[in-house]
Amino acid sequence: MRPPGGTLEHLVRTGWRYWYLGLRKALALLQATWITYSQPVPASCGQLLTQILLCGSLALAAASLTYCWLASSLLYPLGPSAVVATVCGLLAFLGLVLVPPARCLFALSVPTLGTEQGRRLLLSWSTATLTIAVVPNILANLRATGQVLRCVTEGSLESLLNTTHWLQTASQALNPDGQAGSQGLTLQAHGDSAAAFRLHVLRVTQQVLEDFSGLESSARVVALGTQRVVTGLFMLGLLLDSAWYLYRYLTDLRFDNIYATRQLTQRLAEVGATHLTASPPAWLLWAAQPRLSQAELLSCLVRLGLFTLLLMAMAVTVAMDYVAFLLAQAAVDWARELPAVPVTLTIKYNAAYTILGFLPFLFNRPPLENPYLSAHNSFQWELRFTAPGCPLLPAQRPHTAAPLAAGALQLAACSTVLLETYARRLRHSIAASFFRTQEAKRVCHLHARLQRRYDRHRGQPAQPQDTSSCS
């Protein structure tokens, strides 16, 4: 019987062993699947069935992604999006099954996303997503602020005209008709001029709000159209970049032939020329090493600095959206909380006259007053600073999902700066696995290049190379 410590150690070792064996089996299965996928012509019915299943799965995934991209991101109608996605899926399936270079092109498009072309696609998608969500929202909040100014202006003008009306009524009460020769307060308001001024102000504010509304709609339409066009162009550029890489790989032995692969190491070992890579040149990259060269690291740092500026610009844009929302919300809340101020105007008017008023003064008596006119009037109205018939627009809260999605896309584009070197190595490995004969010729060419460099450094004439194994 084992002690508890020994049992636990045995269980850990057994679990680790099973996990390691399972990982090795999974890697072997993936490697066998990739070999079957990269075969130009299937060697058996099993490989043919596997290729059909893989191509069908990839075509289905491509159709699903196309439908989600068209319907959710580019906001196309659901029916046309489904039709386009179905056609793309069928064409992708036929191309992947019948045309082996199409399978290579499809595989090359994945690491191409990590290169400069894929980075442009991610940045354009991020910018369009942020523009569609943020710019119309900022304009909507500015329109809500303008509506507050309109309502306050309209309410203040109505209160001013109402106050003028009541003051004129009070002045008429002080100077009633039929009192010839009486003097009182005279207040005259030109109603036509006041109404014309009020209409002019309302017309101007309404025009400003309509301009903001039209600008908001135009910005949304322009941003969406720009996103559709730019994204389509960059997707086409992504496929063309992959096709151009494949064309150059098949036609130019010097193109992207700077990797010390396992095939090169085996060839140098077979011909006894391992000394050629003992002190390798700076341009030779070891495909199996994850370490970046100094030049690659410096280029990554420069590009990361540029991406920092883009992230700062995105942060400023999102901050402007929140500032516009807070200003609009504060203005709307302030306008809603403006109270109606009650105004009461009380007029007491007593008029009297005296005759020979100096006589009672001589006898030190108060003069006798004869009442002539007595009036007591009270007028009440309210000062409203917002017009009752002017609706206040609510402030539009900033979208959270769109800035997060744009930030995630920008971070993904930023990560491609560091992964671009590995993406280029992966692209070379994919092309090499599809076209093994061409890769053998490229290895021979690289071997000859290294030999010429070695001979030049030693001051020896160039030696002829054995190319029998390269044909």
TrEMBL record:
InterPro entries recorded: CSR-E3_Ligase_Protein, DC_STAMP-like
Subcellular location: Membrane
Domain of life per record: Eukaryota
Protein name per UniProt: Osteoclast stimulatory transmembrane protein
Main location as per UniProt: membrane
Record keywords, A-Z: Membrane, Transmembrane, Transmembrane helix
The organism's taxonomic lineage, starting at the top: Eukaryota, Metazoa, Chordata, Craniata, Vertebrata
Species in which this protein is naturally found: Bos indicus
Keyword Transport appears in the UniProt entry: no
Domain Dendritic cell-specific transmembrane protein-like: 255-447
Membrane topology: Multi-pass membrane protein
Membrane-spanning residues: 49-70, 82-102, 122-140, 229-247, 306-328, 340-363
Gene Ontology CC annotation, any one: membrane
Alphabetical list of Pfam families matching this protein: DC_STAMP
